[in-house]
């Protein structure tokens, strides 16, 4: 038994539309769900990023903020909290995660550089590649076995990383990264042992180790529940141990910061921090606000601590599992086990008749919208499939449709409705058609691409 460890104080009506209306809107959006207006969406599971509900404590902190340009009280409150959790010396706020990425890779990236990770998130990869560097993913082999239940499918493949570090000159690898939880790999957690081993390996080669820590609290909760020796530790203790193995982290606080925007870089590397502060001032803002309103720093200071509350995390992880179980009851193939922030439909098993180069995940996501006004996102060959020499799409290892659950926003009734909508689509799956791209941008094409049915 789990239940929401909060009650609802403010409500917001959600739009209810007809299929005919949605067909028109999706056509106008060129079959790209990112291009829809949210007023045309009933249940929005596009992302868990910045879409959560803030607590009454956060809202009161917002009112209590100090909007000073330099030296704001709110900044020091934020720094105290981030330092308590991460232990890092330099704390640099940014307006969101990718601003932290851009700054980090502007300093450490560049042509000839190679940056390995368990799996880079899409914006992380884009920010690396934008500098001319190359992004490498070394997930464990079981990460692609969507039906296999295992505790830490988000782990780094340590052997592959070791081979990689041995076969490349040290100066070409400016850092090693781990994404926790592994967002693009299905929201699966990374074990403490794996974080520690990755850190040891990176350090034995003299290479800094960073954590992309957007969902550090959810990851810490899984460690507590699944890894031996952690059952009696607090989430804060576990988080602190995770960070103790790293030289720094980048964070999108729109996730486990329980806030609508925000991010940071935190590190013990003095030289890196100095360079980062210069870039911050050039493009984000002064070092005591980093592109955020000071009220955002207030909501983050409260939200980051609320995210460490075990009752909250129990509700969070179990609500994700609830949606997964409801889908399984309706025979929908999903990635197992459910992760920390989303349920991933396995589009390859859902729609085997549509090949990867025709984006089966996108076809399913469009139909789920048409059926019930539910917005999901494709994570497969549309998001990640590169172009080959003849401009053909090279298939991504997995084809998923992500149903990301905003924090503290939807009830289980909403999620049961989502499961029913998905079942209706599944029952008609042989009528679903493949898709092709008619327009795409050179980077992160899924955000703005135009598509049509083949
Ligand atoms: C969301 C996310 C980012 C990017 O953060 P934004 O705040 O969206 O810019 C980077 N890495 C991971 C793992 C993420 O989930």
Tell me what the structure shows:
The chain is of the alpha/beta class. It has helices spanning 19-28, 56-63, 73-86, 97-108, 122-130, 158-167, 192-204, 216-226, 235-244, 270-283, 294-306, 310-329, 347-350, 360-372, 381-384, 412-427, and strands spanning 43-44, 90-94, 114-117, 134-137, 176-179, 209-212, 248-252, 263-267, 342-346, 374-375, 377-379, 400-404, 435-439, 450-453. It has a five-stranded mixed beta sheet, sandwiched between helices. A three-stranded antiparallel beta sheet has the order 9-12-11. It has a two-stranded parallel sheet with strand order 1-10. Strand 3 (114-117), helix 5 and strand 4 form a beta-alpha-beta unit. Helix 14 (360-372) crosses helix 16. The N and C termini lie far apart (46 Å). The protein binds pyridoxal-5'-phosphate (PLP). The site of pyridoxal-5'-phosphate has 15 residues, from helix 4 and helix 5.
Strand content: 5-15%
Largest sheet data: 5 strands, mixed
Order of SSEs, N→C?
HEHHEHEHEHEHEHHEEHHHEHHEEHEHEE
Which of globular, elongated, flat, extended, rod-shaped describes the shape?
globular
Number of domains: 2
CATH homologous superfamily caption of the largest domain = Type I PLP-dependent aspartate aminotransferase-like (Major domain)
* Helix residue percentage: 25-40%
Number of helices: 16
* Ligand identities: pyridoxal-5'-phosphate
Q: What gyration radius follows from the Cα positions, in whole Å?
A: 21 Å
User: Main sheet: which strands, in order across?
Assistant: 2-8-7-6-5
User: Which residues sit in consecutive blocks of at least 5 with pLDDT less than 50?
Assistant: none
Q: How far apart, in Å, are the first and last alpha carbons?
A: 46 Å
- Overall mean pLDDT stands at 96
Say how many strands there are: 14
């Amino acid at each position: 038994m789990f239940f929401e460890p909060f009650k609802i104080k403010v409500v917001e009506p959600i739009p209810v539309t007809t299929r005919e209306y949605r067909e028109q809107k999706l056509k106008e959006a060129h079959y790209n769900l990112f291009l829809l207006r949210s007023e045309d969406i009933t249940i929005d599971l596009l992302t868990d990023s910045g879409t959560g509900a803030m607590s009454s404590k956060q809202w009161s902190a917002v009112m209590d903020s100090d909007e000073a340009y330099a030296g704001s009280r709110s900044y020091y409150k934020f720094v105290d909290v981030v330092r308590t959790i991460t232990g890092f010396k330099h704390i640099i706020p940014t307006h969101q995660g990718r601003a932290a990425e851009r700054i980090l890779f502007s300093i450490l990236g560049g042509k000839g550089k190679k940056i390995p990770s368990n799996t880079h998130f899409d914006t992380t990869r884009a920010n690396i590649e934008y500098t001319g560097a190359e992004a490498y993913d070394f997930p464990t082999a079981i990460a692609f076995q969507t039906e296999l239940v295992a505790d830490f499918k988000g782990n780094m493949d340590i052997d592959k990383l070791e081979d990689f570090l041995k076969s490349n000159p040290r100066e070409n690898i400016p850092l090693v990264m781990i994404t926790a939880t592994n967002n693009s790999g299905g929201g699966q957690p990374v074990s403490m042992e794996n974080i520690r081993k990755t850190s040891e390996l990176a350090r034995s080669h003299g290479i800094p180790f960073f954590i992309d820590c957007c969902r550090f609290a959810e990851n810490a909760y899984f460690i507590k529940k699944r890894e031996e020796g952690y059952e009696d530790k607090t989430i804060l203790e576990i988080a602190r141990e995770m960070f103790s193995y790293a030289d720094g982290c980048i964070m999108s606080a729109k996730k486990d910061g329980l806030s609508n925007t925000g991010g940071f870089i935190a590190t013990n590397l003095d030289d890196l921090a100095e360079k980062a502060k210069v870039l911050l001032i050039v493009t984000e803002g002064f070092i005591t606000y980093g592109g955020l309103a000071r009220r955002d720093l207030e909501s983050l200071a409260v939200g980051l601590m609320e995210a460490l509350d075990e009752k909250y995390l129990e509700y969070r992880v179990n609500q994700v599992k609830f949606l997964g179980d409801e889908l399984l009851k309706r025979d929908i193939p999903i990635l197992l086990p459910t992760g920390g922030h989303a349920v991933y439909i396995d589009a390859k098993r859902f729609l085997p008749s549509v090949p990867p180069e025709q984006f089966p995940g996108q076809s399913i996501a469009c139909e789920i919208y048409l059926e019930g006004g539910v917005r999901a996102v494709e994570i497969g060959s549309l998001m990640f499939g590169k172009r080959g020499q003849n401009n053909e799409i090279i298939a991504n290892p997995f084809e998923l449709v992500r149903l990301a659950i905003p924090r503290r926003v939807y009830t289980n009734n909403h999620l049961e409705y989502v499961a029913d909508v998905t079942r209706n689509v599944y029952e008609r799956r042989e009528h679903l058609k493949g898709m092709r791209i008619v327009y795409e941008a050179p980077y992160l094409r899924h955000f703005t691409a135009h598509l049509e049915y083949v």
